[in-house]
Amino acid sequence: MIKASGVHRTFGGVSVLKGVDLAVSAGELVTLSGPSGSGKTALLSLLCGFDFPDSGSVLPGPASWSACAVLPQSLGLASELTLEENVALPLRLAGREVTGVSELLAELGIGSLGARYPAQVSFGQQQRAALARAVVAKPAALLADEPTAHLDAASAVAAVRLLRRVADDGTAVLIATHHDAVHEVADRVLLLADGKVRG
Ligand SMILES: Nc1ncnc2c1ncn2[C@@H]1O[C@H](COP(=O)(O)OP(=O)(O)OP(=O)(O)O)[C@@H](O)[C@H]1O
């Protein structure tokens, strides 16, 4: 479950989020649209506990990869680990068997790059590895910020198909995106504008 109730957040005296309410249930894929600078990234940061609201409450907040996986715009891959090791990380941290890593990389078209380090692949390839890392542990919640922003059309199709399947398998998925291809597979499309969520 992903939830925001009455969330307010001000940066440097500018009120960006002015009472945001939203809820995403297990098995639901919800997209968040809104103009550049409307606060989509700020809201995802609050929901995953990277930041804290001035008032109001959020779920899940700070959590493990298995409870809430995050695909930030900056990706956050560990530079000292190969792509394969990055993707395996949530499973290792949870003490779980490492399985499904090469299948995910292959599904996203980067099956031959698993032994490379992030600096040795393109940003779009890094983005696909970060997506694989976000879904590998079948998290209860998944927050993705512009997950197709750096992908070509074919790679974006594979990414969108994977995100939809993850939701169908029971994860609550919230995606900030400008891409129609992602909105098209959503159960609901929300709009963040003037500091509030509608839709
Ligand atoms: N840590 C911060 N410190 C100061 N201002 C911030 C901070 N985080 C966000 N902001 C401001 O909050 C507003 C919303 O930014 P945010 O990145 O959330 O927008 P966005 O909707 O994700 O935009 P985009 O679609 O371009 O990614 C912007 O005006 C931004 O400058």
UniProtKB/TrEMBL annotation:
Keywords of this entry: ATP-binding, Nucleotide-binding
GO molecular function: ATP binding
Entries under SMART domains matching the protein: AAA (SM00382)
Domain ABC transporter: 2-199
The keyword ATP-binding is assigned to this record: yes
Domain of life per record: Bacteria
PANTHER family: IMPORT ATP-BINDING PROTEIN
Name of protein: ATP-binding cassette domain-containing protein
Organism, scientific name: Lentzea rhizosphaerae
